[in-house]
Amino acid sequence: MTELTQAATGSAAQADGKGGHPLWSSRLAFILAASGSAVGLGNIWKFPYITGENGGGAFVLVYLLCIALIGIPIMVAEVMIGRRGGASPINSMRKLASRDNLSRRWIWIGGMGMVASFLILSFYSVIGGWALSYVGNSAGGLFVGSSSDEIGALFGNLLSDPYTLLLWHSVFMVLVIMIVARGVSSGMEKAINILMPVLFVLLLVMVGYAMSTDSFGAGFEFLFSPDFSKLTTEGVLTALGHAFFTLSLGMGVMMAYGSYLPKNVSIVKTAVTVSVVDTAVALLAGLAIFPLVFANGMEAGAGPGLIFQTLPIAFGQMSGGVVFGTLFFVLLVVAAVTSAISLLEPVVEWFEEQKGISRLTGAFIGGGSIWALGILTILSLNVWSDFAPLGMFERFEGKTIFDLLDYVTANLMMPLGGLFIALFVGWFMSKPSAENELSFGSVFAFNCFMFILRYITPAAVLVVFVYNLL
Ligand code: PFF
Q: Where does 7-81 show beta strands of DSSP type E?
């Protein structure tokens, strides 16, 4: 059943009455979907380890400031562009630019975002596959009684085996394609309505467990008592970059989701809610993880292996570790799936707009190409681990294809996308349209918002961007 017929037959999502573009069934549905996109590997895998590497509390404080001052305004801008355009990122930008007689080149923001989603999902799915395989490892009791060397070897063996990686990457991608192919209402909304509550419950169970350990206080203090002597310039920039990644900004994902947002829903309130949910999940993940790490006498600054190497050691040593370890990795898979759906959606929405391509075909062509691209990431973890395609440039020395994909998307494409989105809404789009779409209810609040988008956001993003380039 296509989206149009779904809308016509009145299933969960509604049509907007103008051409039947499907819509989320309610504000809550959008909040869950956008939170599902935002809450992902970034919150449960990346946030804890970069917080660990950057010394804790002071880093968390800077991260919170970046979310409030830069993340939320860009999210508002992106959702607004999506809702006004009512189409895929490329076509929304095309419509808005032509309405205000602006250059057609603005569609490149949408285009770049779609390319970035494509690239990110290709490696995000491989990491989602690691999480899937760790559900099995934990449930099978592989962590129990294992030494840290054995647990390290388990991770090492997974990364060095391309066939196992390909298997899990494929399972992950098939899951994501199946959900997206079914459409906004019967696919994404239904899946998200089940997955997000499951995620919250699992997270609270994990935090509850952490609270029962003697080290909960130490974990809490690590996250919330700032020690500015531990904060470096690099840490500040990492916090800003992560604010983009964790809120899924600068890539058109929030535009695509915004294009399904009913007109009567307040964009500002909704964006604030999504950002608060995302931040709360990252902090709760920290509160679930650090007490376990400290309770077992381990280091917070273990880097990317924190949840695949350090945490399993903790699960192997604690009572009930099989159950809690399995729940933890199920939580990670759920978070990764709801984000991956949002990465595939803009590509599929665009395919759907091309005449004669159904959503199902679009999901398979788009998802299938992303799956194939994922093979490059898999190979760079083993067979091609010494292959650095841009190794002739000093800054890319030793960087594998996987490293390059991660670097180019997170450090270049996302901030650039965010910068142009802020510039478009702040300086180019007609002000009355923005005011009308956002309905702040107070001229002062609207002016503050525009001031941030015009000056603060571009300046902050430029600093990160230039720093990353130099
Ligand atoms: N926000 C997701 C996370 O924190 O894992 C990752 C992500 C999803 C980034 C969607 C970008 C995106 F468009």
A: 14-15, 22-23
Q: Is the CB of 75 under 6 A from ligand 1?
A: no
Cα separations in angstroms, 295 against 142, 209, 219, 419: 20, 12, 9, 42
Find out whether the beta carbon of 123 lies less than 6 Å from any atom of ligand 1: no
DSSP letter at 266 equals -
Q: Which CA distances in Å does 131 have to 176, 286, 361, 362, 464?
A: 15, 18, 28, 27, 30
Contact call for residues 91 and 353 (beta carbons, < 8 A): yes
Does residue 100 contact residue 428 with C-beta atoms inside 8 Å? yes
Give the separation between CA 310 and CA 292, rounded to whole angstroms.
Answer: 10
Q: Residues 369-413: pLDDT tens digits?
A: 999 999 999 999 999 999 999 989 887 888 899 989 988 888 788
For ligand 1, whether the C-beta of 251 sits within 6 Å is yes
Q: Is 35 in the pocket of ligand 1 (CB under 6 A)?
A: no
Pocket mutation for ligand 1, best pick of 117, 199, 246, 421 (most atoms within 8 Å of C-beta): 246
* Confidence (pTM): 0.89
What residue owns the CA closest to ligand 1's atom 7? Answer: 248
Domains identified in the chain and CATH numbers: 42-469 (1.10.4160)
